[in-house]
Fold:
Amino acid sequence: MEEARLGNLALKLERYRYNLTASISWVIFGSIFATACMLLSSLMLFGFDSRAVLTLIPAFVISVVVYHKMRTVISPSEGKVWRRFWIFLFLPFFVFYTIVPHFLSLNELQTSAYFTTAWYPSLGVGLVLAGIFVERKDEMLVTKTMLPAGILTLTTSAPLALLCEGVRSYYDVIAVGLIATALMLSIYTACALYGFFKGYRALIH
Structure:
């Protein structure tokens, strides 16, 4: 009887640790991406054109490396659920940056604004896909935050698109990019806090 109770407690503690790791990951990956976005804005202030968006590539690489490092501290069995995560997350980026621009009629400033902020709706679509096809299958997670985060990101992409359409200078382009970064950090922080404070339910159920 005592052994069964201790075994159950160990499972609950493992699930609690798993959920805390998941909540902290929002802050980690949000910080990595925000750093890249701020670097992008700084380069544009120094006179670099929209091709400075390539600075986001190192952020992707670092995120993948950190993700695989974090997998060493989570349950191996649940880690298998997340093998397709990067496919769903990054596929929208490929579409938004290589295919969608061919169907848009934008002037030079609008083009710069698009490439500076296209990562934001791309992220929204990626989070929705990952939330539906990956996160919901993770039985260890108490809180499923990716789908709501993706929907909120896509919802706030609409006013961001209007701002991009109305840019009048490169300062406007940079401002729109910073707004996108601020929105992303706000959503990521909300998800982290929600997961952190709700994670204790893993010890109750």
User: Anything to note?
Assistant: The chain has a mean pLDDT of 85. Residues 2-204 form one domain.
